[in-house]
Amino acid sequence: MARSKTEAAKSKVESAVALGGLGAGLGGPIGGALGAGIGLIIGDGETVFPLDMVAIPAYQAYMIQGSPSLQIYIRAGETLMPTGGNVRDVQEVLGSDIFDLEPAVKKTTYQVQKKKLTAYQRKYKKAFKTVAPKHKKKDGTWKKGGFKAAVKEAHRKCK
């Protein structure tokens, strides 16, 4: 069951207030306003990470060069879904087929058939196998112009 508009709005307001408080603590009134604005923007949308990232706790942001208590590696393409504290949303998403671990089997209605060799192709293949050793070196590589000469000779034999 999807969330109602009031639940989504409440979630956005809660994230705006939380980020506003964090911004005010770090950057005063300007930081609070920026945090609240960012909270309203990203409060209820999914975020897909465009590149690999490392997440650390916000209160340890000054330790970027140090060693924070927790580091989470986020691969490019992973999605961050805000829950807004609503456990039902998370359970709905986990229950959907987004998180199926089995790869989807592509069902086709037709069988792919191999192309049948013509009589000329069979003759050419046999002739090429008999001619090729004459145009190769001892180590198995082609002599200069050998492949082209082998092709011509095999075609001549087939006619």
Report on the architecture of this protein.
This protein has 159 residues and is mostly helical. It has a domain at 119-158. Helix content is 46%, strand content 6%. It has helices at residues 5-42, 87-95, 119-131, 146-158; strands at residues 47-48, 53-55, 72-74, 79-80. The protein has a two-stranded antiparallel ribbon with strand order 1-4. Strands 2-3 form a two-stranded antiparallel ribbon. Helix 3 crosses helix 4 (146-158).
Q: What's the oligomerization state?
A: single chain
User: H/E series, N to C?
Assistant: HEEEEHHH
First-last Cα distance: 72 Å
- How would a crystallographer describe the biggest sheet? 2 strands, antiparallel
Count up the helices.
Answer: 4
Q: Approximately how much beta-strand content do the residues carry?
A: 5-15%
Our Rg estimate from Cα atoms comes to 33 Å
The helical percent reads 40-55%
Q: What characteristic shape results from the CA principal axes?
A: elongated
**What topology, given as strand order, has the largest sheet?**
1-4
Let me know the average pLDDT.
73
Poorly predicted spans: none
**How many beta-strand segments?**
4
Q: Which structural category fits the helices and strands? A: mainly alpha
